[in-house]
Amino acid sequence: MTQSVPPMFRALKDFFKGTAKKAAEEEPNIEEVVGDSGKRIREGALTDLLEELKMELLSADVAMSVAEEIIESVNGQLSGKRFERGYRLDEIVEGALRNALKNILSKHAFDFWKFMKETEKPVVLMFVGVNGTGKTSMIAKLSKMMADHGLSTVLAAGDTFRAGAIEQITIHAEKLGTRLIKHQAGGDPAAVAYDAIDHAKARRRDVVLIDTAGRMQTNRNLMEEMKKIKKVAQPDLVIFVGDSLTGSDAIEQAREFDAAIGVDAVVLTKIDADAKGGAAISISSEIGKPVIFISNGQEYENILEFNADWMIDRIFEEGR
Prior knowledge:
It is a single chain. Helix 11 runs parallel beside helix 12. Helices cover 50% and strands 17% of the residues. It is elongated. By secondary structure, it is an alpha/beta fold. It has 2 domains: 96 residues, Up-down Bundle (Four Helix Bundle (Hemerythrin (Met), subunit A)); 205 residues, 3-Layer(aba) Sandwich (Rossmann fold). The longest helix is centred in the first third of the chain and has 17 residues.
């Protein structure tokens, strides 16, 4: 859980560290002494610094509303407030930034394993998203993680539009030693989902993970097919799989899928290579749904339950 991945959140890391450093350099201009026991930041003294931070957040693919929320939170924590004399201004600013991020990232917290425990079996999870996000690989990682938690799984090869997709999930199922339900390429994906759920009920399996064709959120015919799968499968969770490298595009895709079929939660892939980090910060707040897992590598073990503190530590830690 402490992998060192040089590119991860590099832009945000540099921006936030730079903001704290700049505040320290300008300390005489923005801080005033109020007595032997403390000091405070003058009202309005941080305006230019925070405006610059806002622009940098936007350039790192942080959504406008989220950037504004961060700026408002930091300003509210600092402007005119009194602090103990022992703290340096860069420490105070960094602390305010951490708090602002924590509030945003924790806003839609979701206890996935509690949900899994309390939901009637088999729990049906349906995964949606556009081509190339790593959806099938994420399903395989989750299947392995669930096995490690003592849960049996059935995979459903619901991407029947591409023979290669069926082959890919077949290879994963064989490696993991889990049951796969599949039909021929070109078959009805809703029927695949139905058969997988029926199999899970008959064999008393705990979880059904339904893969679906990667489709552009603007393709209405394919979105109608997605609605059919959902109607047949009646999933307990519809999970959007987003590629964190696509930044604001991932947020827009999630918004479109949510409007079309309803999304309950988000997982983010390729976060280990995400140099900006804006999508990871913004997506949950923008669509009002929790991020539940992140993928941080290629192996089955490279999956983490989303944790706000983990992400904040990666942004502010030195040497990462």
